[in-house]
Amino acid sequence: MSEATVSAVAEAHEKLGDFTQRVQAIRESLHQVVVGQDDSIDQLLVCALTGSHALLVGVPGLAKTLMVKALASAFGWKFTRIQFTPDLMPSDVTGYELLGRGEESQGPTMVFRPGPVFSNLVLADEINRAAPKTQSALLEAMAEQQVSVGGQTYPLESPFLVVATQNPIEQEGTYPLPEAQLDRFMMEIRFGYPTPEQEEEIVLKTTSGPIVMPAAALTRDEFLELRDLVLAVPVPKNVASYAVRMCGGSRPEDNRAQAMVRDYVSWGAGPRGSQNLVLAAKACALLDGRTAPTEEDIRHVAGPILRHRIILNHRAIGDSVTALQIIEGLLKEVR
Questions:
Q1: HEC states along the chain?
Q2: Is the Cβ–Cβ distance between 326 and 317 less than 8 Å?
Q3: Mean pLDDT to the nearest integer, 94-103
Q4: pLDDT for the residue 303
Q5: What's the alpha-carbon Rg for the chain, to the nearest Å?
Q6: How far apart are CA 179 and CA 144, in angstroms?
Q7: If pLDDT is split at 50, 70 and 90, which confidence band does 4 have?
Q8: Mean pLDDT, the chain, as a whole number?
C-alpha cells in the first residue's frame, strides 16, 4: 500500500471518528431533554444529517415539538414554529410584499417581508389542519429551497429542514396531505407511548422546573461538513440495487410485485423512495461507525421511509391491511 493511500485511509478514519463523536454528543444532549423515544431521535437525526424533511405522527403529549426544538438548539439553528390552522394563508408561511420605501429610491415601492419559512428548521405543527392551498406553500421551499413571491425568487439559507407533525386520532376538520407532498418527507416517524418507568421520569422532570434546552454543539459550517461527509459515503452496487428492488416490489404493476402488493396496493414507492433508502442507509452506517452502508441498513430504515409512500386500495382498508404489513412482506420476499 502506497504512502498516499495509507495517509488517505488514516484521514478517513479520523473523519469517521470525529463524526461519530460529534453526533453522539448531540444524541446524548437530546436524551437529556427527551425521555425515551430512542428510535424517533435517531430517525430525526438521520433526516437532519441528510438534509431531508420529516413527518412526525403521534398523539398529543409525546414530546414531538420538544424534540424538534431541542434538535434546533443542539445544532444552533434558527428555529420557527408555525401553528397550522384552517384560516392560515400561504403568505403567513412564505411572507408578503408591503408598500414601503426602498433603500435607494425615496418613492414608495413594494418591499418583501420574509415569513417564518425563512429559517433553518421550520416546525409545521399539525400541518393537516391547514387548507391544501396553504400546505402547498411549503412545497417549493421543501423541493427547491427557495420561495417565489410577486415574481421574485428568494433563496433560503442552508441548512433548511421542514419537520411537520400530525395527530393520528383527530381527523375531523383536517385536510390529508396529498401523495405528492407526502413524498417530500424522507421519513414518517411514529411516536409511541412511553413505558411506565419512562413516564414516571417524564413527570418528575417536567414538574420540577423549566426544561433547559441543550447548548449549541456545532457551528453552521461544522454541520454542513458533517452533512457533506454523509453524502460522500460510497454506496456498494448491491446496496443500491436492493433499495431499488424494495421500491420496485411495492408497485402493483411491476413484474417483481408479490401477490399481496398486487391485491392491496394502488400506488407504490417512486424513485425518491429508493434515493431516501440509500441516503438514510449512509447516515446509519456512519452513526454506527462504519464507512459504507449494507443491505441491513436498508432494511432498518425501510419502515419509516416507505410506509407513507405506499398507497393502499379499498380492499386493503376492508381487510385491515396496513402499509407496514406490506413492507414486512417485502422484507421477507425481496432478497
A1: CCHHHHHHHHHHHHHHHHHHHHHHHHHHHHHHHCCCCHHHHHHHHHHHHCCCEEEEECCCCCCHHHHHHHHHHHHCCCEEEEECCCCCCHHHHHEEEEEEECCCCCCEEEEEEECCCCCCEEEEECHHHCCHHHHHHHHHHHHHCEEEECCEEEECCCCCEEEEEECCCCCCCCCCCCHHHHCCEEEEEECCCCCHHHHHHHHHHHCCCCCCCCCCCCCHHHHHHHHHHHHCCCCCHHHHHHHHHHHHCCCCCCCCCCHHHHHHEEECCCHHHHHHHHHHHHHHHHHCCCCCCCHHHHHHHHHHHHCCCCEECHHHHHCCCCHHHHHHHHHHHCC
A2: no
A3: 76
A4: 93
A5: 22
A6: 18
A7: very low
A8: 86
Q: How far is CA 119 from CA 162, 245, 329, in A?
A: 9, 37, 40
Residue 5 has pLDDT above 60, yes or no: no
Q: How far apart are CA 288 and CA 232, in angstroms?
A: 16
Read off the pLDDT of residues 249-303 as tens digits, 9 standing for 90 and up: 999 998 888 889 899 999 999 999 999 999 999 999 988 888 889 999 999 999 9
Q: What is the pLDDT of residues 21-65, one digit of tens each?
A: 888 888 888 888 888 888 888 999 999 999 999 999 988 888 888
Cis peptide bond N-terminal to 159, omega within 30: yes
Q: CA 183: distance to chain centroid?
A: 11
* d(C-alpha 127, C-alpha 312), whole Å: 22
The helix-helix angle for 295-306 and 271-287 (nearest 10°) equals 120
Read off the pLDDT band of 166 (50, 70, 90): confident
- Cα separation, 188 vs 292, whole angstroms: 24
Q: Are 171 and 147 in contact (CB under 8 A)?
A: no
Helix axes 271-287, 237-248, angle to 10 degrees: 140
Can you name the residues that pair with 96 across neighbouring β-strands? 113
Distance in angstroms between the alpha carbons of the first and the last residue of the chain: 35
> With 70 as the cut, is the pLDDT of residue 310 above it?
yes
Report which residue type is found at 265: V
